[in-house]
Amino acid sequence: MPTDSPSLAAPVIVIAPDSYKGSLSARQVADAIGRGILQAIPQAILHICPIADGGEGTLDAMLHAGGKTGMLSVRDAGGAMREAPVALLPNGAAVIESAEIVGITDTRAMARPVAERSTEGIGDAIRLLLDRGVRSFLIALGGSSTNDGGAGMLCALGLRLYDATGAILPPGPAALQQLARIDASGLDPRLAQASIVGMSDVDNPLCGEHGASAVFGPQKGVQPDQVAQLDRALAHFADLFESAVGRRAATIAGAGAAGGLGYGLLMLGGQLQSGAETVCTHIGLDAHLAGADWLITGEGRSDAQTLHGKAPFIAARRARGFGVDSSLLSGAVDQQALAELGRHFKGCFSIVPGPMTLAQAIADADRLLQASASQIAAIWQAGRMR
């Protein structure tokens, strides 16, 4: 076959994975996949596009398309001061990642009962950035350890909570049960000129059986006998707050994101958007997909939830719009979801070749990714040459 045959032209391959949480960042995953592809197809033209869905790794994904990191001194979920990174983008917007400030992986803050944790640090970050002239905010909501309805963030921005005696209350969920009055007159006036977007992949309301406390509370340490109590506290907070400002948001899809932080952003006049869609738009994924031959994406574990707005699904859907096939290469793939996943991806693969412990898979993820990508690319190239 002539070497200048169109079927042998150098393929353009877009590599757009999410992170393998607890193991590799999205960029590290993409680089390992790229090395594997080049082993099988040395002439391949690679477009490295790390992505995220509004959770851990969103800062890094957004910065891949340009910008710089800034450090802010803010409160963690337990109230202790910490240095946290934010992304300052070329267009003047700032990206705040909740997981970097009130994250569920912060063992020090997680040692505090969930009823005492708050999102004050998110408000600290917004206020400090307002001081620097920032008026456009993208706030990644995934990975938080809090369940305060955004009360902490709002208090850090000037909201005041009072009990029946007129004493000021702290913003944690425990104190919200004692709430008698809310004063919103002290909210930072600069917020009126700000654009705020919450990035999330969930559509839960603030309260109820599908709300923040019931659905996400258990993973943050909420015990079964605490769910109803914390849910009532958030509902009580929302009733008083909405009466005070004349705005309703508790039932809006996504209000329950990040323990109700989504609700707090909505009450500031913000909007909620798909985290994965926002990231893909910002990094210009569509421009890389136009004219591409193949997309390879992935995440730490793929299951039925992948198809509900997770980053690999969003990337594959965008690729399909350009007539580009996509394949899924993840740390693990739920076999029960394989048939459903297979309707959206041309091949779903796990990097684990055989029985091994989770610790082994995490420790060896880079090598396993490179080896798996090489094998998948060889198969893809062979099919392309027929």
Description:
With 386 residues, the protein is of the alpha/beta class. α1 crosses α16 and α11 crosses α13. It is elongated and about 80 Å long.
List keywords for this structure.
alpha/beta, single chain, six-stranded mixed β-sheet, disordered N terminus, about 15% strand, 16 helices, about 35% helix, about 375 residues, five-stranded parallel β-sheet
Précis, in short:
The protein has 386 residues and is α/β, with parallel strands linked by helices.
Q: Can you give the mean pLDDT?
A: 94
Low-confidence stretches: 1-6
Shape: elongated
Put simply, the count of helices is 16
* Share of helix, binned: 25-40%
Record the strand order, biggest sheet: 3-4-5-6-9-10
> Sheet with the most strands?
6 strands, mixed
Radius of gyration: 22 Å
Total number of beta strands: 15
Separation, N- and C-terminal Cα atoms:
11 Å
Strand residue percentage: 15-25%
Classify the secondary structure makeup into a structural class. Answer: alpha/beta
Write the layout of secondary structure elements.
Elements: E1 12-15, H1 26-40, E2 45-48, H2 58-63, E3 68-75, E4 81-88, E5 94-97, H3 98-101, H4 107-110, H5 120-131, E6 136-140, H6 151-156, E7 160-162, H7 173-176, E8 181-183, E9 195-200, H8 212-216, H9 227-245, H10 257-267, E10 271-274, H11 275-282, H12 285-289, E11 294-297, E12 301-302, H13 311-321, E13 325-330, E14 332-333, H14 338-342, E15 348-350, H15 358-363, H16 365-385
Parallel strand pairs: 1-2, 1-11, 5-6, 6-9, 9-10, 11-13, 12-14, 13-15
Antiparallel strand pairs: 3-4, 4-5, 7-8
Helix pairs in contact: 1-16, 11-13
